[in-house]
Design a protein that fits this description.
By secondary structure, the chain is an all-alpha fold. It has two domains: 10-37; 40-159, Homeodomain-like (Arc Repressor Mutant, subunit A). It contains ten helices and no strands. It has helices at 2-6, 12-37, 41-56, 63-70, 74-85, 89-107, 112-118, 124-135, 139-145, 148-155. The chain is elongated, with a radius of gyration of 27 Å. The model has no long low-confidence stretch (mean pLDDT 84). InterPro entries: Homeodomain-like_sf, HTH_AraC, Tscrpt_reg_AraC-type_HTH. This is Helix-turn-helix domain-containing protein. Residues 47-145 form the HTH araC/xylS-type domain. It holds the Pfam family HTH_18.
């Protein structure tokens, strides 16, 4: 293109066509890059789901509650979670409850019964079973263990 610009017998029509082709190519490349960073409807829904779980995890809402709030079916919501997050809505809720459980166990002097109640469990034994099923330890064992290996074992349960 530069060589053609320097030639005296330059045909401007050819130059304009080259320029047009170059601009079309650049425009397509820009559109591809924009599509990569533009949030999709699915990513927006999953972000809203995350916010809803953060707001309602203590209330132990079912998948239907979140699906209704996002205006989709429960089956479709779980399908989106599996496809994009490799998890389910219930697992997301459980992980959030587990994080808060550990935070309260390590950084508060609340009893296990008080923590269970604060996290929406009406029965302490259900909370203990929930916690042990995920971590492999009871809340009391985790709190009293305190060693690095105990904490790591609770963070990486054998599934």
């Amino acid at each position: 293109m530069i060589k053609e610009l320097q030639e005296p017998q330059l045909d401007m029509t050819i130059l304009w066509r080259y320029l047009y082709i170059l601009l079309q190519y650049l425009l397509r490349e820009c559109q591809v890059q924009i599509e990569k960073i533009t949030p999709t409807r699915h990513s927006e829904r999953l972000f809203r789901l995350s916010s809803l779980i953060e707001n309602y995890y203590r209330e132990h809402r079912g998948v239907s509650f979140y699906a209704d709030a996002l205006d989709i079916t429960p089956k479709h919501l779980n399908s989106l979670c599996r496809q994009y997050l490799h998890t389910t809505v219930a697992d997301m809720q459980h992980k959030r409850l587990l994080i808060e459980s550990k935070r309260l166990l390590f950084f508060s002097s609340l009893s296990v019964k008080q923590i269970a109640y604060q996290l929406g469990f009406e029965d302490t034994s259900y909370f203990v079973r929930f916690f042990k099923r995920i971590t492999g330890l009871t809340p009391t064992q985790l709190r009293s263990g305190g060693s690095e290996s105990t904490i790591l074992a609770a963070e990486n349960p054998a599934s």
